[in-house]
Amino acid sequence: MAESIFALDSFWLSLILKLVAVVAFFLVAPLIAGYQEHKVMAFMQNRLGPMEAGPFGALQLVADGIKFIQKEDIIPAAADKRVFSAAPGVVLIPTLIMIAVLPLSPGGFAEDLDVGIFFALAVSSVGVVGVMMAAWASASKYSLIGGIREAAQLIAYEIPLFIAAAAVVMQAGTMSLVGIVNAQADFTAFGIPVPYAVPQAIGLVIFGIAALAELNRPPFDMPIADSEVIAGHMTEYSGLRFAFFLLTEFGGMVVYSALMVVLFLGGWNIWPGVPLPDNAILANLIGFGVSMVKILGLVFVMTWLRSTYPRLREDQLQRFAWTVMIPLAILQLIVTAIGKVIA
Amino acid sequence: MSAPTAPKKKGPPQIGLLKGLGVTLKTFLSKPTTQQYPKTKPDLAPRTRGVIALMEENCTVCMLCARECPDWCIYIDSHKETVPPKDGGRARTRNILDRFAIDFALCMYCGICVEVCPFDALFWSPEFEYSTETIEELTHEKEQLRKWMDTVPPPPELEYGAELPKEIQQGLDAARKKAAQRAAATAAAAPAKDDAEQDSGEKKEVEQRLEDTIHVEAQIDQDVFDKLVAEGKSERVARAKAKAAYVRAEKKRQADEIRAKEEG
Predict the structure, then answer these.
(1) ipTM greater than cut 0.90
(2) How many CA atoms does the CB half-sphere of A246 hold within 13 Å?
């Protein structure tokens, strides 16, 4: 098992350091991704986007956060108050926990679990409980319909997502996220060093589409479709609790992009067969930079899809998942298995 | 009621999906058209209708604008003054403008006053930054209206081949006549000094005048029009240019004919 750069002799000190690192990443990375999304989407719509808060509007999301804090926290009279208040936390924490196992550089992770990818995907499924809590406790028909849509969507898209991840795990021969990156570092297909994106091309596309659906990103944002159900499970929320949902959305974008980078794009390595420098500090810095560039690139693709495609219809979404995504994912799994046996 | 039928599938949809991505990417890479208004002034059309300006000197207090105004937002006050008689005539009275104000809180920018003014005293100015804190301040007096007059752009140039306004044409004719007389007088006083030079200059002027005297009814030159439209010019621009091209060519042809007749 690889050693984290945050691991110290003292257990408690090490724990605090890891917590600080995870929370810092959780608070900063979504801001960068969110700012990038604001800007990219604006330019795709022939606008400038935020320009006033900070240089070129870079602090817009910080300003938004401050504004959210100042807002009144409204709880509807008919709401189930305790569940209603707890839901944003339940949604937010899984994303935070997933960051703990994300390797962003050779030592840049809080924990390297043997079952890393299993753990990350299992934890990500907990988020839907929070969504259902929010949907039910709001005592609003829009929230409820949005929440049920989200539950149906998550069930439909978690299957291809997990199968696509399973194919990668099979190819790498390990469930550890660090192990998967290391397995890709010297991977060659017919003598050419390539990341898993090449043999697992179908898996990459399926994982990406399923991740969009998991995150309620357009064109799969029926659970929060504003023309139909206002904001789905977030309809009745305001102030800081609403900000939690938003932060989770941007955080989820970063986390799922990071998972894709690890599983398919070779993680912190620039390219398979191109090793990072031996110097540990330098390797970690460069590795982190490479990871971030890849993650933001995927966030760019997500934004690109968002500004290009209209929202699907609920039945189209379900049909697409069950008749296209899942069979293709299984096909990828079978092909990977055959390849593994033959090789 | 029959069950709704699914639309017929036409080719693989994947191509359309990629095209869509191409459109957004192209827009992403091009420069946004946003103008950051308070920091940079907007590119307004030259004849933007921002505010109504008053050329105080031209106003004769005829009250047409105030009467035609649908909102009654123009206030005019005046008094009569007697102008002392000019050698031998009798004394005349004329109107002196005391107050001319437009209440821009009422004005609906229909422009009827500008249209109706018979003495070219009212104009559209592109100035638009005159928002105020209170509604009373939106009533602007003639001093302010006169200041806006300075922001009025000059009138647009006439199309090639268009007739000049009557006054200008008369003035021009008179000036040319005078110049011709003077030239004849100097030519008589200093004969054959720099004959060649003067001759060529005069000839040029004659030619110019010959073409100016010919009147041609404007028509659209179809070839030119088609060519300009194919180049991507708007139909309006192409039509104007095609007309100008026709008039120019027709005038030249007729002038050449006249000249040929004179010579041969």
Answers:
(1) no
(2) 18
